[in-house]
Design brief:
The complex is a heterodimer. Chain A has helices at residues 12-20, 22-35, 54-73, and strands spanning 39-50, 86-96, 100-119, 122-144, 148-166, 179-201, 204-214, 216-217, 221-222, 225-226, 238-239, 242-254. Chain A is of the alpha+beta class. In chain A, the strands form 3 sheets. Chain A has an 8-stranded antiparallel barrel with strand order 1-2-3-4-5-6-7-12. A two-stranded antiparallel ribbon of chain A has the order 8-11. A two-stranded antiparallel ribbon of chain A has the order 9-10. Chain A is elongated and about 70 Å long. Chain A starts with 11 loop residues before the first helix and ends with a strand. Chain B has one helix at 2-25, and strands at 35-37, 40-42, 45-50, 61-67, 73-75, 78-83, 87-97, 102-112, 127-128, 133-136, 147-153, 159-161, 164-167, 173-183, 188-198. A 5-stranded mixed beta sheet of chain B has the order 2-8-7-4-5, with no helix packed on it. In chain B, strands 9-15-14-11-12 form a 5-stranded mixed beta sheet, with no helix packed on it. A 3-stranded antiparallel beta sheet of chain B has the order 1-3-6, with no helix packed on it. In chain B, a hairpin with a 4-residue loop joins β14 and β15 (188-198). Chain B starts with a helix and ends in a 7-residue tail after the last strand. The relative contact order of chain B is 0.14. Classes of the chains: A alpha+beta, B mainly beta. Chains A and B meet through α3, β6, β7 and β12 of A and α1, β1 and β8 of B.
Amino acid sequence: MERKPKATKVSPLLLWGRALGKKALALVLLFPFAAWAIPLGVESGPHFFRTYPPAISSFVQLTNQAILYGNSTFFGDIPLIPLMSGGLGVRMAETLGEPFALGLGFSLLSMETGTSGAWGAQEVAVGLSLSYADLHLLFHFSPVPGLLFLGASLGFAWANLSYRVEFPDLPLSFVPARGEVLFSGRTFVAAAFLRAAWPILPNLSLGLEGGFRFALFPGLFSGEVPMDLNRDGRPDSLDLSGFWLGLTLRVEFPL
Amino acid sequence: MRARFLVLAGVVVAALALSGCVGKFSVRAPEAIFSLRPTEGVAPLTVVCDGSLSFSEGARISEYIWDFGDGTRAFGPIVSHTYRRGGTYRVTLTVYDERGMQSSRQAQVVVRFPPPEPDFTVPPIPVGTYEVITFDASASRSPNGPIVRYMWAFGDGTSAEGVRVEKSYRYGGAYPVTLSVVDEVGAVASITKVVQVLGGPSCGY
């Protein structure tokens, strides 16, 4: 009995490949990059970021109320805790291509707040220290090549919150929990930015950029224990989304 | 050149404006925080509840609602409440701000029951050995309700239970008689009185 051959679907790319050969296909696919001369850009710089993580702001404000109560009850003068509102970080990336570029980058930032003092013999110390890192895939487009960049990134972020509190028992409905704990979490992160650059030397430019980062950590944990800073019995999420303003030094190496 | 400056200036202004506004993007509920004075004591206990530490970011707190955990409520930033009976009560403050957002928080008040007041009669004059003495604790009282147990320790190593008990001593001497009573809520109190028994230590059968 004669067997009929099975009909199979063949993709156009495969057909091209068969017709032209694998090397030719690779050349065709890489042609756009080759046409742009594929500049390799290395960029880095400091950035000032602004964020008011609600969980931390709420904790700071509640603790400040407890400090106010303690100051008035024990005639103390412990300074209130400044809100955690942002800080200085650093970003670094490598991109390939022009005016469309793809690359990899990372950001690091940290911020902290706290206070300390004493009510008589009773020590009071509150310290929060937050560190953040992300690794992201970067895409940017330069409508005015070398001068204006529009970019977006998607990646993965890690955050650590170091919590250190020494606080007396007060007859209040909220008193910060005593102890020293490190909470950690991770999440996806996305960002978008706009950069205006100024060439200062051949292949070297200084840019000023503004951007927004979306980084919402659904929960931070210390082992199995979820973070609950305001002690309402519900785990806190940590929202580090916010704007940044940064300086970027970019070096281009034509490949 | 001018266009470049304009772009730069635009980026700076936009970033500064947005970074200044970012805190306002999230509207947070008010926070109910309050003090209780005292947080424990013996009934009747009057507790002053001060909710004036509560706050709301960007709005004024318009309402304070207190639930004292014993079926009563009150309104206002600072209130007081008297707990008549012992127990552990959860005080809840709920605050509303002008935007209608609310939050609540709880704290605990421990009210101890007042102790019962035990009392019993002793013979007004010394008694002799082997003479039967009736101890009567029916004069004992408790503000928490009826007394459910009367326990006696007669000072000679013997004990008994009951509102009225009889006892005789084999030897003369001064015996401290202790009555302990327990009321229906479990509060305990004791009283000790001395009974004089005439007769030498060797007197007996």
